[in-house]
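Example record

The entry below shows one chain as it appears in the dataset: sequence first, then structure tokens.
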Amino acid sequence: MNRLLSERLLCIARQVRAGQTLADVGCDHGYLPIYLVQKGCMQRAIAMDINEGPLQRASEHIEQEALGSYIETRQSDGLEKLIPGEADAVIIAGMGGNLMMDILTRGEAVVRTLEQLILEPQSELAGVRTFLREHDYFIEDEDLVLEDGKYYPILRVLPKKTSDVLTFSKESGLPLSVLDAYGHRLLAARHAVLVSFLEKERRQCEQILAGLPTEGAGSERIALRRAELAEWIDRNRIATAYINIKEGEY
């Protein structure tokens, strides 16, 4: 099954700490629960999806690996069909950040009984980090992987534990807007893939900014867009400066 995992999925799997029962929300082909059970990281798993198609594919792969006694499939809208305390770990990956925050909000009774959450939001990343910080989630670790030209952030989150982002902000001097945009764990580690992301983001913002007309129709809308881009470039500059300064000198 290892050969079927992409670098993104392997990175998600590496973030999972050993436990008893895993629930994979939006399981798609079921590769992650199969891999984690085969590796002995989890004793059993529940592969969950809102749609029948992915569950059917996951069931076929589970049977091919003779893991039907260890992994069950369950049709569920988010965490709706998971009983509080039934799992100690949950993966929510491959979906937009707004949907992910909605799943966490609606499934709060389940989430608060977990030992760990592995999150891989594919949009609204700053919003997800802000949500976690404001709702007593502790980001224990974060990774960033580049696959097929796209960047994927992967967070290991502990529920029921106060965030340390405010403390890091005070110690580093970095504003919360920068930490929510890029991740305080990635910044503290001077993560190599984050460096690549910052370079790409800066070039893109500067190119878009240079291409905007300086006057004409829709000038108010353009002015707002310029201000938005300038704000992003400033956040990017602050994060890049922090990474480039030797640790302890910032």
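Notes for this example: DSSP finds eleven helices and seven strands in the chain. The mean pLDDT is 93.
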